[in-house]
TrEMBL record:
Coiled coil: none annotated. Residues 1-19 form the signal peptide. Residues 283-305, 311-324 have a biased composition (Low complexity). Residues 283-333 are annotated as: Disordered. InterPro entries: Egh16-like. This is Putative gas1-like protein. Keywords: Signal.
Length: 333
């Protein structure tokens, strides 16, 4: 978590984004647990419109910031910065706080409109693999939307419930459970967009146990190079922020914030798994015989783009969030 000095600086920087809507809860199949928007703090008051404290956990989700590798596809809050989707999903699973869905089922999403530009309409997307950055189902059906136009209305300090319908061909494969999707909802306010993300667990499908070879996420060479350039540019500032948060004052102030908001995480031991050996396969190199070993090109295709691996080199740790690198995977080329 950020230090108070960092939070104050960020609040000044983001003062133009003083608005907002917060996802307080999401209820899928009746009887299942309710989800809560990632990084929504239940201890913050909902009876005011001021930037501090009432807007501190509002999620800001801007495509420009995603493309610039500042945040991932679930954006950031003013209090915590970039939202680590994987971490927050696992925390929710451990706390038994992930609502359940089926293909075609409906989720009731409670949105708290803080002030004028936390209004509707809201659009919602589904990321089938949870946190790989690929918007699998954009703009799914939303009924009973929050009233408003261009994100504005006169409502404030008011809760609205929208109904989000899961796609008929829903296929959630994310998280350690192997059957969790991320749902992202946001409005179209110019100061935002505002909204948030929450996890849903699909119960009418078989949980997936992946092998590395099953992961088909890919980033174009152009985007890899752009990400590397952006990481190099951002690294000095990111290192400075990391060092500031690691000072005695930074650690002390973060502890004060955690105590004030009663922030806690349920911990559960992760399973220890071993992937079963795959059946032997015949490679192209094995299958093709050449007359002249000097002309053997069986290794030629392995010298391409380094498997796009360079994008994993700089793990930008802005705001003590460890997964900013997924940001550039949104809207995969």
């Amino acid at each position: 978590m950020q230090s108070f000095s960092s939070l104050l600086s960020l609040a000044v920087l983001l003062a133009s984004a003083n608005a907002h809507g917060v996802i307080l809860g999401a209820q899928g199949i009746q009887g299942s647990p309710a989800s809560v928007g990632f990084k929504v703090q239940s201890a913050l008051p909902r009876n005011c419109t001021s930037i501090n404290p009432c807007q501190q956990d509002t999620t800001i989700i801007r495509d420009a910031e995603i493309s610039a590798n500042i945040v991932n596809e679930c954006g950031r809050t003013e209090l915590d910065g970039n939202i680590d989707i994987g971490e927050n999903t696992e925390n929710a699973l451990a706390a038994d706080a992930v609502t359940q869905v089926k293909a075609g089922s409906t989720v009731d999403v409670t949105i708290h409109q803080v002030n004028a530009d936390g209004a509707g309409p809201y659009t919602c997307d589904v990321i089938a693999q949870g946190n790989n950055g690929v918007i699998t189902f954009p703009n799914v059906q939303v009924d009973d939307n929050v009233p408003g136009a261009n994100g504005f209305s006169q409502a404030k300090e008011e809760d609205f419930v929208i109904k989000v319908t899961m796609p008929a061909d829903l296929n959630c494969t994310g998280s350690s459970a192997g059957n969790v999707c991320t749902v992202r909802c946001r409005n179209n306010a110019l100061a935002g967009p505002f909204g948030g993300c929450f996890p849903v667990q699909q119960i009418d499908t078989e949980a997936v146990a992946l092998r590395p070879s099953d992961v088909d996420t890919i980033l174009s060479l152009e985007k890899v190079n752009a990400q590397v350039a952006q990481d190099i540019k951002d690294l000095p500032v990111a290192l400075a922020a990391n060092q500031a948060d690691g000072t005695d004052d930074g650690i002390k102030n973060a502890a004060i914030v955690s105590k004030l908001l009663n922030i806690s995480v349920v911990s559960k031991a992760a399973p220890l798994q071993t992937v079963a050996p795959a059946d032997a396969t015949t490679t192209a190199a094995d299958a093709v015989a050449t007359q002249d070993p000097s002309n053997d090109n069986s290794q030629g295709n392995q010298s391409g783009n380094g498997r796009n691996g360079r994008n994993r080199g700089n793990n930008n740790n802005n705001n003590n969030n460890n997964n900013n690198k997924r940001a550039a995977r949104s809207f995969v080329a």
